[in-house]
């Protein structure tokens, strides 16, 4: 995927579901407060199971707590290594 395609995708925050379905757009209004978003493309979010979403958000929050003193962006894989290994075997 090229950079132009990456920017053209609609990114959503899977840690903030809307009441009627779907997700809030990626990002947060105030950087000093609130939780860090776990952003994925909307089509990827639609294809993920509830357990995969919960795992991704949990791993992101855990990593952010650990790295808060570093003050650098925290990147966490959308799928865990274990989930990727299981998917590769099947």
Walk me through what this model shows.
It contains four helices and three strands; from the N terminus they run αβββααα. Strands 2-1-3 form a three-stranded antiparallel β-sheet. It has a domain at 49-90. The model has no long low-confidence stretch (mean pLDDT 79). The two termini are 25 Å apart. With 90 residues, the protein is an alpha+beta fold.
Q: What low-confidence regions span 5 or more consecutive residues with pLDDT below 50?
A: none
Strand content: 5-15%
- Count all strands and give the number: 3
Biggest sheet, open or closed, and with what strands and sense?
Answer: 3 strands, antiparallel
Number of H/I helices: 4
The helix-and-strand class reads: alpha+beta
Helical fraction: 40-55%
Alpha-carbon Rg, integer: 14 Å
Order of the strands making up the biggest sheet: 2-1-3
Query: What do the pLDDT scores average to?
Result: 79
Terminus-to-terminus distance: 25 Å
Give the H and E element order. HEEEHHH
Taken from the alpha-carbon principal axes, the silhouette is globular
């Amino acid at each position: 995927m090229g950079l132009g395609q990456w920017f053209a995708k609609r990114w959503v925050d899977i840690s903030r579901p809307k009441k009627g379905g779907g997700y809030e757009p990626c990002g947060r209004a105030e950087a000093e407060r609130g939780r860090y978003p776990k952003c994925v493309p909307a089509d990827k979010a639609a294809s993920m199971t509830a357990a995969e979403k919960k795992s991704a958000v949990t791993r992101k929050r855990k990593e952010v707590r650990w790295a808060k003193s570093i003050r650098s962006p925290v990147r966490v894989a959308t799928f865990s290594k274990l989930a990727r290994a299981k998917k590769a075997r099947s």
